[in-house]
Amino acid sequence: MVIVCFSIGIMKFNIKKKYKKARLGLLTLDHGEVNTPAFMTVGTYGSVRGLSENDLENCNAEIMLCNAYHLMSKISEICSIKSITLHDYIAWNRPILTDSGGYQVFSLSEHTEVSRKGVTFKSPLNGDTLFLSPEKSIKIQEMLGSDIMMIFDECPKYPLSKEAIEKSMELSLYWAELSKGAHSSNQSLFGIVQGGMYEDLRETSLSELIKLDFDGYALGGLSVGEPKMIRERIVSNISSKLPDDKPRYLMGVGKPTDIIYAVNEGIDMFDCVIPTRNGRNGQLFTNHGTMNIRNSKYENDLKPIDEACTCYTCKNYSRSFLKHLDKCNDSLAGRLMSIHNVYFYQDFMKKIRTAIYDGTLEQMMEKVNLIYSNSQ
Ligand SMILES: [Zn+2]
């Protein structure tokens, strides 16, 4: 039963059911549907390292996140000249969300100069100087033809003084206006709430962004090294103030326990490099907690990673063989373990959606917290 249906440009967001603050929804985008709460697999450079688009589809991934900064130099120009979208170029026909490059202000901060106009990056790879402004970021994202674009913002470090965070939040608001003004396509555009760990600054940021009327709202500037308790306080207090009728996205989060906590507070969308980055390093998520394939106890273990998992890796390969591949530095190890983790995360989100539907989310959260507190 659809209880709410909102049409935002070509994007539609249906909230099918609510359980307390949690929302079960469906996001309809130009390139397909995304069931929410959703986890977006991160393909920063237009690919999820080691995985083909076919692998991702087999893992039931419905949407991919790519990054405008990493794609700015060449691919956006190719897409524009050849009149194709990023979907065509990377052979991924499902929805894509592009991040604006603002996060790189944070992650490459030793190599950046920030002004009101935008950010000058010095590439850590070759020293080339690149300039990215709100207008340029939107133009690149429009050239890429993503389904959802993010505004260009500054993601401040943690910890910083309130004065510094306020200055940064005001700059992000100014850039939000410029991003909105530069938006000329029918692609959806999400605003990003900043304000560090200060709730009053977050509320100011949110109320100003709402005036600009974005298609969805994200919480940015979290998962930057702050204690879990502080992050949870911000998520809990700000999530419920985000507009009820628009998708809500918590950026850069996270572990299964963080995701289910935020879903319970009303968040609809997530992204994180954890499943793939950890997978390549032998850290695997299972229904019994995390496991590290490099542990010597798996040497003669012919069981799959998780006997309850139906991914390609678990259907075909043993822990012992994966450990062997990893030890031999065979890239197949990273690929197979990433497939498992990506599949696990999608399966986890599906279970969360079922729990919202059934009204058993709190019981599931309790179980997940117990499993992961015992395994870490
Ligand atoms: Zn598996």
Which key phrases capture this entry?
single chain; 15 helices; TIM Barrel; 376 residues; binds zinc ion; alpha/beta; 4-stranded antiparallel β-sheet
Task: From the 3D structure, determine the CATH topology of one domain.
Answer: TIM Barrel
Q: What CATH architecture label of one domain applies? A: Alpha-Beta Barrel
Radius of gyration: 20 Å
| Fraction of residues in helix | 40-55%
What are the segments in which pLDDT stays under 50 over at least 5 consecutive residues?
Answer: none
Describe this structure in words.
The chain has a domain at 37-273: TIM Barrel, CATH 3.20.20. The strands form four sheets. It has an eight-stranded parallel barrel, surrounded by six helices. The chain is globular, with a radius of gyration of 20 Å. Helix content is 42%, strand content 21%. The protein has 376 residues and is of the alpha/beta class. Bound molecules: zinc ion. Zinc ion binds at residues 305-306, 309, 311, 313-314, 340, 343.
